[in-house]
Amino acid sequence: MSSSSPAQAPIRMVKACKTYPGPTGRPTRVLENVDLTVDDGEFLAIVGPSGCGKSTMLRLISGLSPATGGRVVVNGREVLEPPADVGFMFQRDTLLPWATVVQNIQIALELNGTPQAAHKERIRELLELLGLSRHGDYLPAAISGGMRQRAALGRLLAYAPKIYLMDEPFGALDAMTKMMLGRELLRIWSQDRKSVVFVTHDIEEAVGLSDRVIVMEGPPGRIKSEYRVNLPRPRDFREVRLLPEFRDLCERIWWDIGHHDA
User: Fold this and answer.
1) Which of 3, 19, 82, 158 could be cross-linked to 108 through a Cys-Cys bond (beta carbons 3.0 to 4.6 Å apart)?
2) DSSP characters for 122-133?
3) Which pLDDT band holds residue 262 (cuts at 50, 70, 90)?
């Protein structure tokens, strides 16, 4: 991971706020004065209790929802609409149900301008990378949830954004599939070191994958604390869980999330 100056960092949030109309017409503040910088090539995880604004932060960075206060800057430009070089992976796959796995991935190649002549080989590489070579012609309804999430990850990789936003992408999967995809994500990330912002409720997943963990509290959502993950890379997601430093850091974060100042 390279260290960026705040002005050069791929993602900057400066006193970012988000307010929605409440049920009675009074505004409800979801995020309050969030300051965050994500370095080039950094894998950042965000954890915290439900309703603290984790997903809202990703929506502000992606341009899917505008900030109502402060600034959000991606690759040097204030976010006023969805940036072209940001990819978003949701908790539930958003594959087109009428398109095959191959066709879903090909759409991403078309969107990022990959020459048509290169599509077949790139799709073959991605299917092989994600263990989907035998399922390229299947519709999403015909494959398992884990395979659909792998296909969604393949589509994100085909789009090849500079920044990856991932909102609990493995949250609905069983423990074995989650671990397998976590290992796969780490392997892929280690090849090109794109910036990743990864929201999860799973503390072990956050520590096992990331360089830094942000703990949020709220509502309204705000950053409570942060932890550097000084565990060796390349990192095997199964083996790192056995390290005493891993267990200690997970316990500290669990305590931090559950502890509320009076």
Assistant:
1) 158
2) HHHHHHHHTT-G
3) very low
* Rounded distance between C-alpha atoms, residue 37 and residue 40, angstroms: 10
Residue indicated by tokens 């012609």: 137
The CATH architecture assigned to 1-85+163-169+194-262 reads 3-Layer(aba) Sandwich (3.40)
Domain range annotation of the chain = 1-85+163-169+194-262
Angle among Cα 128, 240, 169 to the nearest 5 degrees reads 50
Q: Are 73 and 12 in contact (CB under 8 A)?
A: yes
Average pLDDT over residues 8-18: 93
**Closest residue by Cα to residue 251 from 204, 192, 188, 199:** 204
Mean pLDDT of the chain: 89
Q: Which two tokens stand for residue 234?
A: 């390349």
Supply φ then ψ for residue 215, to 5 degrees: -105, 125
Q: Assign residue 251 a region (left: φ > 0; alpha: ψ between -120 and 50; beta: otherwise).
A: alpha
Q: pLDDT tens-digit profile of 137-193?
A: 999 999 998 899 889 989 988 988 899 999 998 887 778 777 877 887 888 888 889
Backbone phi, then psi, for 178, in 5-degree steps? Answer: -60, -45
pLDDT for the residue numbered 93: 77
132: tokens are: 């989907």
Is the alpha carbon torsion for 58, 63, 66, 72 positive or negative? positive
Q: Taking the complete model, does pTM exceed 0.90, yes or no?
A: no
Check if the beta carbon of residue 19 is closer than 8 Å to that of residue 218: no
Query: 198: Cβ–Cβ under 8 A, 6 or more apart, which residues?
Result: 43, 44, 45, 46, 166, 169, 206, 209, 210
Whether 1 shows a pLDDT value over 70: the answer reads no
